[in-house]
Amino acid sequence: MDEQHLNRFRDQIPAYLAGSLSAKEREMFERAVQESETIRSEVDEGRMLSVGLAAAEGLAIGHPDSDLLATYAVDIKTLDSNERDKIERHLTDCPECRIEVQTSRESMRFLEEPAVAGRATLLQSAREWMFGSTVRWAAAAAGLVLVLAASAYWGSKLSGPSAPSVARVALSAASERAGRQSTSFVVDPDLDAYELEFLLPTRESGHYDLILQDAAGNRLQVSKDQPHQLPFLVTVSAELLKPGHYRLTVAEIADTAGVSLQAPPDTFHVEFDVLPEYR
Amino acid sequence: MAGSYPDSGIVDGFIRGEPEAVRRTTIYIERALSPWRDRLGYQADDVRSDASEELRVALCREQFRNDASLRTYIARIVSHTAIDYLRYNRRFVDGDGDAVFELLPAKLPNPEQALERKQLHRLLWRVVRRLPAECIKLLRMHYRDGLTCGEIGQVIQKKEDRVRRRLWECREEAKSIREKLLIPDKRL
């Protein structure tokens, strides 16, 4: 097949893939595919590229471009006021993007701060240490040895009341897999309290009431007027969390300090199960 | 963290392949990735790899213009890469991606043939993510909008032969990216 014919068929590849060739054109094209290895491989390549392009296009439908959103979060001064307004309007109605903006800002903070912010998770703190200097490693090792030695010593000497034993439990909420992953943890009789950690697309300026209820709807704990946190942390006494199903409602306060919200207040629910200990 | 090593020193050093500059950018990327890790799970490795590649290309092609600090630039790259991955998961993994996977070719060349449909779909998406913006624009006009090389030439004011040549180069680049992504790790 000469170059001119090849080029004619090459130009028909997108139409062939889209199924928009006429019956006669299609028949001729398929004959060319059978005869020419070049056309055959270009059809395969075109098909794979079309799938990749369609996937990439599909991601931004209904949301700002990811780079624009990240730029808004970490380098807002480079956006013009139109872009900024458009994103801010979108954020009012899009909890998903609010989470992405908040996490992008956390990303920037992790780059700027030598020490980990107090509200970062323990896991993140540990990761930060991984990238610290060897001095930090040495200090950490020395600290660990001291703590272990002291706890061994005082553990054997003291019989008085000790600090409450608290475990942090990461709950999945409003994450990509919300509703798909069951959130549960096994009760630990040795604990005094649980520190429940969960990520919610709350507004940075927002204040929230946190209400913990059991399966029967009884209010077990109410924390009023909590500021936005990333992630949220709530400490619940172990006495309250017997095996069973629980719901944590995070309700935005509509009017904080006399400032009314422009959008309706958000309410989030985090459901989880406390499972009996293994016997 | 910022130390006394200025951004320009890191960028120049990175381009020259100096270990200290490469180490610094790697640390920056790791740090920027930290708050995303829990949500990304095992895909954090792919995000790191894609963000590193994007940064490498941007620095080598002098796309980083110092109008923001290097750390801000890296936070932006890591964040938009992570956002893309999370959006991909929501749309094609948690959502009804099955309909899309039906569009995948029934017969594929090796080694792509060995991949499951979901893995292949993710691979093809990652290939497009890594292509230069100019290639994505050309390929989109051709494969998605159905324009011929002559028609694309009219839009971008280039000769038909030049467009055909560039399209071929972009396809070759896509093929090469695909091969690179397939070699180190089949966990796509």
Describe this structure in words.
The complex is a heterodimer of chains A (279) and B (188). With 279 residues, chain A is an alpha+beta fold. Chain A is built from 8 helices and 10 strands. In chain A, a hairpin with a 4-residue loop joins strand 4 and strand 5 (219-227). In chain A, helix 2 crosses helix 3 (37-59) and helix 4 packs across helix 6. Chain A is elongated. Chain B is mainly alpha-helical and 188 residues long. Chain B contains 10 helices and no strands. In chain B, helix 9 (149-156) crosses helix 10. The relative contact order of chain B is 0.08. The interface between A and B is large, with 63 and 68 residues.
Number of strands of chain B: 0
Q: Termini of chain B, distance in Å? A: 33 Å
Mean pLDDT of chain A: 75
Number of strands of chain A: 10
Structure classification of chain A: alpha+beta
**Number of H/I helices of chain A:** 8
How helix-rich are the residues of chain B, as a percent range?
A: 55-70%
Helix content of chain A: 40-55%
Instruction: Give the structural class of chain B.
Output: mainly alpha
Q: What oligomeric assembly is this protein in? A: heterodimer
| H/E element sequence of chain B | HHHHHHHHHH
Q: Main β-sheet of chain B, in a few words?
A: none
Task: List the secondary-structure elements of chain A in sequence, H or E.
Answer: HHHHHHHHEEEEEEEEEE
Q: What overall form of chain A do the CA principal axes indicate?
A: elongated
Biggest sheet features of chain A: 5 strands, mixed
Unreliable spans of chain A: 115-161, 174-182
- Compute the average pLDDT of chain B: 84
Total number of helices of chain B: 10
Report strand order across the widest sheet of chain A. 2-10-7-4-5
Shape of chain B: globular
